[in-house]
Design goal:
254 residues; SIR2/SIRT2 'Small Domain'; 6-stranded parallel β-sheet; 2 domains; 3-stranded antiparallel β-sheet; 10 helices; alpha/beta; Rossmann fold; single chain
């Protein structure tokens, strides 16, 4: 890590022809969605909650599914609004030099802020849809949650009777190979790779930083806590995301 100046990183935003960003939970905490691993994270405060996010448990145990559906119904995702960080990236897209938003988040706030759906690569899926584990049928989550409210604690697929789940990737569940390839392809074409609000401890998402650095792409980390990639980064910024991203974008909007 050789540079920590916001003004210097802003200059890089202005010079770059192909910017790719990787976002994690930290960009959405300012919208009221808690992260998982941070000091006030969901799993930090309640380690037992992790069992709801394990695919094997979800498939095998109806009680886990009932608890998971109750948690989905109460999720802050449904009332959260995009914050200044999300809006800054949507604004930067208008320059034509933001090539992809690779996100570990499942909340859909990038799209809600105005980022083009075709530019957002949801590495871990989306909470805004459901998927049947048997037939693959997908529905908007908004069509399924009312069934929970009316007493279906573990709603089944209306097409085949199979197990329904949010269209997200749980621990032990295989990632979509096409999604990962899209992320790698976007990273391959970047001359500036910016990791925002992510601990960079979850793979294969964190491995995109390895790929970028190996190709000689300049890496910037914007995160409140240290990450394993700080030593590989050309710059590490600790400022609040909602404050620093608008500054970087404003400088880069040439």
């Amino acid at each position: 890590m050789s540079v920590t100046s916001v003004s210097e990183v802003a200059r890089w935003f202005g010079e770059a022809e192909a910017v790719v960003v990787l976002t994690g939970a930290g960009i959405s905490t300012e919208s009221g969605i808690p992260d998982f691993r941070g000091p006030q994270g969901v799993w930090t405060r309640n380690p037992a909650a992790q069992h709801l996010f394990t695919f094997e448990n979800y498939v095998a145990d109806p009680e886990v599914r009932r608890q998971a559906w109750a948690a989905r119904l109460a999720s802050p995702v449904w009332t959260a609004e995009p914050n200044a960080g999300h809006r800054a990236l949507a604004e930067f897209e208008r320059t034509g030099r933001l090539r992809a938003v690779l996100t570990q988040n499942i909340d859909g706030l990038h799209q809600a802020a105005g980022s083009s759906a075709g530019l957002v690569v949801e590495l871990h899926g989306t909470a805004r849809e459901t998927a049947c584990l048997e037939c693959g049928d997908r529905l908007p989550m908004a069509e399924v949650l009312p069934r929970i409210e009316t007493g279906e604690a573990d709603p089944a697929c209306l097409e085949c009777g199979g197990i329904l789940k949010s269209a997200t990737i749980s621990f032990g569940q295989q990632l979509d190979a096409d999604v990962i390839e899209a992320a790698v392809a976007a990273t391959r074409g970047a001359d500036l790779f910016v990791a925002i609000g992510t601990s960079l401890g979850v793979y294969p998402a964190a491995g995109l930083c390895d790929y970028a650095v190996a190709r000689g792409t300049r890496l910037v980390v914007v995160n409140a806590e240290p990450t394993p990639y700080d030593g590989d980064a050309a710059a590490v910024l600790r400022e609040p995301i909602g404050e620093v991203l608008p500054r970087l974008v404003a400088a880069g909007a040439r």
